[in-house]
Amino acid sequence: MKKISIDIGIVLLLLFAISANVFSQKAFKHSLDSIVSESNKYFYAYDEHENNTSHASYIWNDENNSWIGDYKYEYTYDNNRNQTMQITYYWDNATNNWKVGGKSESTYDNNSNLTLTGNYHWDDTSNNWRGISKNEYAYDNNGNQTLEILYFGDDATNNWREIYKYESTYDNNDNQIIHIQYNWNSATNNWIEHNKHDYEYDNNGNQALNIVYNWDNATNSWKGVYRHEYAYDNNGKQTMQTLYHWQNGWIGDNKREFTYDNKGHQIMYIYYEWDNVNKNWTEKGKRKDDYIYNVNETIGTSYDWNYGNNTWTEDYKSKEESTYDENNNQTMSAYYVWDYTTNSWKGTYKVEYTDDGNGRKFYTGYYWEDTTNEWKISSQKEQVFDLSYDITDLIVPNFLYYDMWHEQVYVYNYENMLTEEIYYRQTGTDWIQDGLVTWYWSDIDKEADVSKITNSNLIRVYPNPTSGQITINGPLTNANFEIYNLAGQLQKQGKLHGETTNINIESLANGMYFLRIAGETVKIIKVK
To answer: Which domain holds residue 134?
Structure first.
């Protein structure tokens, strides 16, 4: 009995030494490996510097009851973590595999300023990359871009041909004061001036003047085209915008005036046109907005000026409602518009937010029922977070996914680790689960000494946290594994078979565990 306790003590000392070293000297982070739902799944990979190196999207095909590729990106980076290459793949249904489609390359100077970008497409006929476009950039000592040259790829010659060039200069406050565009003349093989912008600024750095010129080949000089003048209030809000055109001198074209309330909302807009006969500005239209600010609502009413009877005509009214809890977290938002037929408010959307404080957030959406003039619940969503980890503990991809239908890119903008999103729909009086999105995270120990296991960067352990099973993926054939609890007690052991091994850990209690492979601690597993 005494001998057993000594052995356990030795194991405890060794494991606590390892765990102390892990937590005090090694940087454990948690990388988002995949997002999986019934219809979509996304996979991400990273290098040892936390750069996102690949991003693959799959969609579920109901016809053949299988996953098919949607898009895939691969990335490379320089030593300053600037992205130097992106290769795009699309799914080839004929071969049921990824096929390369396009490539972009970038280079940077010592200050990480972008100096070159090149875009290419893959040519199956020549089995080679073909240039689409290329941009070259240069900068001054303050990092202001002074030069941009655009080239297009010429498939006939497989060379780049010049298209246009921009040159810019700046004042001592880094404000751009001159911007010139040149077009390439292929007949004379030189750059020809095309247009120029001259800028001036007020004392607060707001652009006060923009004069546009075109190059006149007949006189070999710049000729004025438009002149824009701007004015601002003390808050930097634009109060006036005046446009002139050149006609043997600057002639007025149109003018706009803006007024704001103390909350920054625009409350008056007046539009003028220049009267060439009377040589003055003539008011042509105006619009005003009145706002009423209550504790939890803002009501805005818009009016157009009727020049026939010289009165304001109300044409639109809206109302926004918001409520907050004692911590200033928003609990409800709703939007209404005024129905001039029924002379009553009509809802357009409403969302209620609930946070239980333990990592579960609920969102309830409503629609407006016209027949009863009331809100009806339309949908519910629940998000589950692991509050043990904040954003500084997480490694996330460049973007999560791209919604082509809405042309929107989604990025990770949560403060903690998101693990599940659950969607519900209403059937009668009951709510049933209508969709589940699972977010899988893996631990990364960037400094762990796992030289005995070939390459630790190739080891993936997922899902993590887990509730029943973990998958270990990597070049680990015939390596032994052990799982210890925080007390140093061996909970499970075995041998890894091939590159992918599934391990059932349903019998483990909730908590943190050390995963050791080939005698080295490589991961911390959280069982929930």
So the answer is: 109-232
Summarised one tens digit per residue, pLDDT across range 384-403 is: 999 999 999 999 999 998 87
In a domain, 175, yes or no: yes
Report how many domains make up the chain.
2
Partnered with residue 226 across adjacent β-strands are 212, 245
Contact 134, 106 (CB under 8 A): no
Question: 205-218 pLDDT, tens per residue?
Answer: 999 999 999 999 99
What is the Cα 22 distance to its own chain's centre?
A: 33
Same structural domain, 127 and 220: yes
* 5, 10, 14, 17 alpha-carbon torsion, rounded to 10°: 80
Q: What are the backbone dihedrals phi and psi of residue 18, each rounded to the nearest 5 degrees, phi first?
A: -65, -45
Question: How would you list the strands of the sheet with 480-485, edge to edge?
Answer: 490-495, 480-485, 511-517, 520-527
Domain boundary (232, 260, 289) is at 232
Partners of 501 in the β-ladder:
472
Paired sense of beta strands 311-324 and 128-139, if any: unpaired
- The secondary element (H helix, E strand) that includes residue 11 is helix 2-25
Q: Are 75 and 56 in contact (CB under 8 A)?
A: no
Region label for 230, one of left (φ > 0), alpha (ψ between -120 and 50) or beta (otherwise): beta
